[in-house]
């Protein structure tokens, strides 16, 4: 992981949208983090779970518990990792 960190500086992982005042109102975030999403996808794609792990979360809309374990698809796992790295705009 240290190599991944040093090979990919923060400046390459995200950037502000071109019109950063207007775009957050119709996009899902204040910044464009598509490069970071591609990095996570490349690192995790087709990589098997080495340990049995189960992570529980609550869906904000339905209120139901969502379980992430070794049975989730690669795309769901990538989304879970990206979600866990986000910083909410309202704490």
Run of helices and strands:
HHEEHEEH
Number of spatially distinct domains: 1
Question: Whole-number average pLDDT?
Answer: 78
Low-confidence stretches: none
How is this structure best described in words?
The protein has one domain. Helix 3 (34-44) crosses helix 4 (74-85). It has 91 residues and is an alpha+beta fold. Strands 1-2 form a two-stranded antiparallel sheet. Strands 3-4 form a two-stranded antiparallel sheet. Strand 3 and strand 4 (65-68) form a beta hairpin. It is flat. The chain contains four helices and four strands, in the order H-H-E-E-H-E-E-H. The protein has helices at residues 2-7, 10-13, 34-44, 74-85, and strands at 15-16, 31-32, 55-58, 65-68.
Short description:
The chain is of the alpha+beta class and 91 residues long.
List the helices and strands and how they pair.
Elements: H1 2-7, H2 10-13, E1 15-16, E2 31-32, H3 34-44, E3 55-58, E4 65-68, H4 74-85
Antiparallel strand pairs: 1-2, 3-4
List keywords for this structure.
alpha+beta, flat, 91 residues, two-stranded antiparallel sheet
């Amino acid at each position: 992981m240290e190599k991944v960190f040093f090979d990919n500086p923060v400046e390459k992982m995200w950037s502000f949208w071109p019109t950063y005042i207007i775009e957050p109102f119709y996009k899902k975030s204040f910044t464009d983090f598509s490069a970071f999403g591609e990095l996570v996808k490349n690192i995790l794609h087709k990589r098997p779970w080495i340990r049995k792990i189960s992570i529980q979360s609550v869906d904000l809309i339905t209120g139901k518990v969502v379980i992430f374990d070794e049975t989730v698809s690669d795309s769901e796992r990538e989304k879970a990792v990206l979600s866990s790295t986000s910083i909410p705009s309202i704490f």
